[in-house]
Amino acid sequence: MAKWTFSGLQIAAVLALSLLINPAAPARADSISISDSRGQTVQIQRPVRNVAIFPLPIPEAMIAIDGGTQRLMAINPRAKSALMKGVIGQLFPEIANIRTDLVAPDFVPNVEEILTANPDIVLQWQAKGGERVAPMENAGIEVATVSTDSRETRRGYIAMLGQILGKEDRAQTLLDWDDRTVTELAKALRSANRPKPRIAFIDGMIGNEFVVFGRQESYFTAAGLVNAATEAGYTDGSIKVGAEALLSWKPDIVFVNYYNDTLQPADIFKHPVLAGLDAVKNGRVYKTPAIDPATAAGGELACLWLAKIGYPDIFVSDFRSEVSKGFHELYGKDLTATQVDQLLQISWNGASAGYVSAFGTSH
C-alpha cells in the first residue's frame, strides 16, 4: 500500500485553504441562554462584541471581568462623568471615547439610536421596566435587566456578565472574593459581641431636607451596621426626611455618599440643626470611598471600609494596602499613593474622627 507524506509547506497550504473555505472556524459562535434579574430568559449569540450598559455601577464590573473597555459600547452619561472624574478614568482614559447618547441620565433609552448602534445586548435596570425596558424590547432589542436590591441580585449580574462575555471563570473569581469577605467579616463581628453602631446614610441635602438610604442594605449588614432609617420604619432605597428626623434617630455615625460630588462632611459639621447630633459632636461623619458597595466587583473593599469605621479597634489591617491589592486584582493596574488618597476621600475626611490616622499616609 502506498504511503502519502506531506511536507511542512504542504500542510500549511492545506490549513490556509481550510481557513479560506471556512474563515469563521477559529472563532466558533455559540448561542447561550442567560437569566436576568426578572428571571426572564434572554438568548444571545457569542462571541459578544458590543455591550451597552445603562445602570451606573455596572460598567466597572464589566471592565473588571473583561480586562478593559474594548467591548463596552455605551454607558450612562452620569456613569461616564463619575468614572472620568475618578481613579477608574485615570486607569482607563479610553472611557472618554465611550458613547453616552443611547440613554438619558434618568435611564430612559434612546430607542432610535440603540437600533442604529446595534449592540449585541443592552443591560438595563429592572425597576420602572415600563419606561426603561419595554420600549427597547418592543423594538426587538435584546435586553437583560439587573438589580442591586440585594446581595443575591448583585452577585447575579456578575455571573450574568461572565456568561455574556464568555468569562465565567473570571466572574467566579470575583464572586469567591465576595464570599470570603462576607465570611471573614461575620466571623470577626461574632467575636466582637457588642452593640452594633447605628448609622444614617445621606445621599443629598438641600437646607433642612435630606435624601437618605431607607432600607437596611446588605453591605450595612455585612459590615455590622444598623440603618437608623430602617429602624424608624422605612424600607425604600431612598427617602426624603427633615433634619429633625435625623435628630430623633440619633445615629452614632453619619455617612455621605460618594456619588454626590458636592456634599461633604464639612457641610454636615456646620449644619445648624445637625450640630446637636452626637455623631457630629464626636466627628463621626465620613465621606464614603469612591468604591461602590453595591457591586460585587470591588464592593468587598467598601464593605471592609464600613466595618473599619464602625469597629476601628477590631479591623486594624492596613486598608491602603487592601485597596492597592484589590484594584490590582480587579483591573490589573497599580495605584499611586495619590490615587489611593483620592479613592479614600482623604481631603474631604480630614476633619473626621480618626480618619487620617487610620487611612492616610505621607508621600
UniProtKB/TrEMBL annotation:
It comes from the Bacteria. Keywords: Signal. Gene3D superfamilies: Nitrogenase molybdenum iron protein domain. Pfam families: Peripla_BP_2 (PF01497). Residues 1-29 form the signal peptide. Residues 50-318 form the Fe/B12 periplasmic-binding domain. The keyword Signal applies. InterPro entries: ABC_Transporter_SBP (IPR050902), ABC_transptr_periplasmic_BD (IPR002491). Coiled coil: none annotated. This is ABC transporter substrate-binding protein. It comes from Labrys miyagiensis.
